[in-house]
């Protein structure tokens, strides 16, 4: 049995990109033989300032949504990162293993910090070390993510390898990303060359998993496209990122192949295609949003689920972290 670990930031509302790129795979993996551990990464969230009240709300909101997507807390471990101190403890050790040059190459940092590199928090810069600790604290070997996280997983492997090498141990295993190729990168509805993101200033750029049927339909109707008719083959979409993105979403939520969908709409404009896409999306997404609302109505129950998950997570992560601390040369601690 292998161990699977993944995380999502409790900032904003999960998008269709989070769902198709990651969350849907989290749910599917639950049915396999591996142990699944899923984490609401609130320590990562505060790398950019979060209003405390809204961080609390968003963490509940994300817990509700993950459950609504189908994560079963009896079969998977679901918890919030700050509840298990192993993450921060191992994260600190990794801050002392990773090299400045490695972190400076991270494209996500460059994207997020932009011209503002002197002003962003040091946490934003060191964030991939904490992500490496999230995974290695469980000796997890499989990590379901979208393809924007690939570089961070390579870094986690570099960190594990350097730790093993520096201390002459075989302690941290290699990590393998699990990526659903077709939906590894769902793009913005306003710009087919940009990733759909919960932090995009334009709400029109994304489908939120809590959007109601009318909002979903309206966003699809307004989604950017081009003026050409739909072609009868996929190759003809190579230079049409918006059309390719909508077709990818359509196939992912309907279960039909992209070719079969194109065959139905070839030669026509985007109107009928968008109507059918909106209908498929509403059928798939709206029930999840409705279920999330129900979970969100009982925060005491969410607290209970997350705290139970945290106890199970700690039982795995604390001994591994304690062993890493022993390898480094720290004296034994009580906790
Ligand atoms: P985040 O919202 O950055 O916490 O991402 C949570 C998970 O969703 C990660 O596995 C990401 O790789 C994945 N993800 C985020 N945005 C997208 C997207 N537009 N397409 C596919 N996967 C995504
Ligand atoms: N960095 C990931 C993101 O922004 C979230 C994350 C944190 C994560 N720790 C993780 C994903 C560990 C996989 C494994 O999307």
Would you kindly provide a written description of the structure presented here, covering whatever features stand out?
- Strand 1 (3-8), helix 1 and strand 2 form a beta-alpha-beta unit.
- Helix 4 (86-95) crosses helix 13 (299-328) and helix 9 (213-222) packs antiparallel against helix 12.
- Helices cover 54% and strands 7% of the residues.
- The chain is mostly helical.
- The protein folds into 2 domains: 3-178 and 299-328, HUPs (Rossmann fold); 203-294, Tyrosyl-Transfer RNA Synthetase.
- The chain has 13 helices and 5 strands.
- The strands form 2 sheets. Strands 1-2-3 form a 3-stranded parallel β-sheet. Strands 4-5 form a two-stranded parallel ribbon.
- The protein has helices spanning 16-29, 42-45, 52-69, 86-95, 100-104, 107-113, 122-136, 150-167, 213-222, 241-254, 258-265, 270-296, 299-328; strands at residues 3-8, 35-40, 77-80, 142-144, 176-178.
- Residues 5-9, 41, 44, 131, 134-135, 143, 145, 149, 152 line the site of tryptophan.
- Residues 8-9, 17-18, 21-22, 145-146, 148-149, 184-186, 195-198 line the site of adenosine monophosphate.
């Amino acid at each position: 049995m292998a161990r699977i670990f993944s995380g999502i930031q409790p900032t904003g509302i999960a998008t269709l990109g989070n769902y198709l790129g990651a969350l849907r795979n989290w749910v599917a993996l639950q049915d396999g033989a591996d142990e699944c551990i899923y984490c609401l990464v609130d320590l990562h969230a505060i790398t950019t300032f979060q209003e405390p009240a809204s961080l609390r709300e968003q963490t509940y909101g994300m817990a509700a949504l993950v459950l609504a997507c189908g994560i079963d807390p009896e079969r998977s471990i679901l918890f919030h990162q700050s509840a298990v101190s192993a993450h921060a403890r191992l994260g600190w050790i990794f801050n002392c293993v990773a090299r400045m040059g490695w972190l400076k190459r991270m494209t996500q940092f460059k994207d997020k910090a932009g011209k503002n590199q002197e002003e962003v928090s040091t946490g934003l810069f060191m964030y991939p070390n904490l992500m490496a600790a999230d995974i290695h604290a469980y000796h997890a070997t499989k990590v379901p993510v979208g393809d924007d996280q690939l570089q961070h997983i390579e870094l986690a492997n570099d960190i594990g390898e350097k730790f093993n090498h520096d201390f002459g141990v075989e302690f941290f295993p290699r990590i393998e990303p699990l990526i659903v190729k077709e939906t590894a990168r769902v793009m913005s509805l306003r710009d087919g060359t940009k990733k759909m993101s919960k932090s995009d200033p334009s709400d029109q750029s994304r489908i939120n998993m809590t959007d109601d049927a009318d909002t979903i339909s309206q966003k699809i109707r307004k989604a950017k496209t081009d003026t050409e008719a739909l072609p009868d083959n996929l190759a003809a979409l190579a230079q049409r990122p918006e059309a390719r993105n909508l077709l990818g979403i359509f196939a992912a939520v309907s279960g039909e192949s992209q070719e079969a969908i194109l065959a139905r709409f070839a030669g026509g404009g985007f109107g009928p295609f968008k109507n059918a896409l909106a209908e498929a999306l509403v059928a798939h997404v709206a029930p999840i949003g409705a279920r999330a609302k129900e979970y969100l109505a009982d925060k005491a129950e969410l607290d209970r689920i997350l705290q139970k998950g945290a106890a199970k997570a700690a039982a795995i992560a604390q001994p591994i972290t304690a062993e890493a601390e022993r390898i480094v040369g720290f004296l034994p601690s009580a906790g």
